[in-house]
Amino acid sequence: MLNIDGSLFVQIVNFLVLLFIMNIILYKPIRGIIAKRDEEMNSRRNSIEEYRNKAEKDQKGIEEGLIAARKEGFLAKESFKSQGLEEEKGILREAGGSVEQKLDAAKKELESKIVDVRKSLEGDIRMFSSELAEKILGRSVQ
Questions:
Q1: Three-state SS for 90?
Q2: Mean pLDDT, residues 18-42 taken together
Q3: Quick count: other Cβ atoms within 10 Å of Cβ 17?
Q4: How many angstroms from the chain centroid is the CA of residue 128?
Q5: Other CB atoms closer than 10 Å to residue 134's CB: what's the count?
Q6: Reduced to 3 states, what is the DSSP secondary structure of residue 45?
Q7: Which residues contact 133 (CB under 8 A, 6 or more apart)?
Q8: Which in 90, 105, 133, 139 has the greatest CB count within 10 A?
Q9: Cα distance between residue 102 and residue 87, in whole Å
Q10: Residue 141 · residue 127 · CB < 8 Å
């Protein structure tokens, strides 16, 4: 089976030397490459996380800005609406006052014309009635 002699020790030394050489030539560079790759991956993960956080922060900022702009727009709209209503009320008050003044003036003018027409008609009625009485009676009435 297994003979323990000097060649076994040579084989063990040969194996250890080969293992040492392979470690220097093959395993250390591969481990270095793997370590660099891990560093690069961690660096990229960190960059991705930073960009993701920045994007979320920017998104929140945009949403907050949008909410603020909508609120400001709504307040401005309400302000313009209330100003418009106040102006409308003022215009209607002026128009109502103006209409009332015109209506009062028209009533006064109409009343004065009615008085003038009555006076004129009263004079005409007296004249026509005296003419009619003269024609009916056939004599002059004074």
A1: helix
A2: 94
A3: 10
A4: 80
A5: 13
A6: helix
A7: 141
A8: 133
A9: 22
A10: no
Q: How many CB atoms lie within 10 A of CB 57?
A: 10
The pLDDT score that the predictor gives to residue 1 is 58
Q: Where are the domains of the chain?
A: 7-111
Alpha helices in the chain (DSSP H): 6-22, 28-137
Answer whether 117's CB lies under 8 Å from 125's CB: no
pTM: 0.45
C-alpha dist (Å) from residue 108 to 18, 53, 100, 113: 131, 81, 12, 9
pLDDT digits (tens, 9 = 90+) for 50-89: 999 999 999 999 999 999 999 999 999 999 999 999 999 9
Tokens 């209506």 locate to 103
102, two tokens: 């015109």
Structure-token match 């418009």, residue found: 84
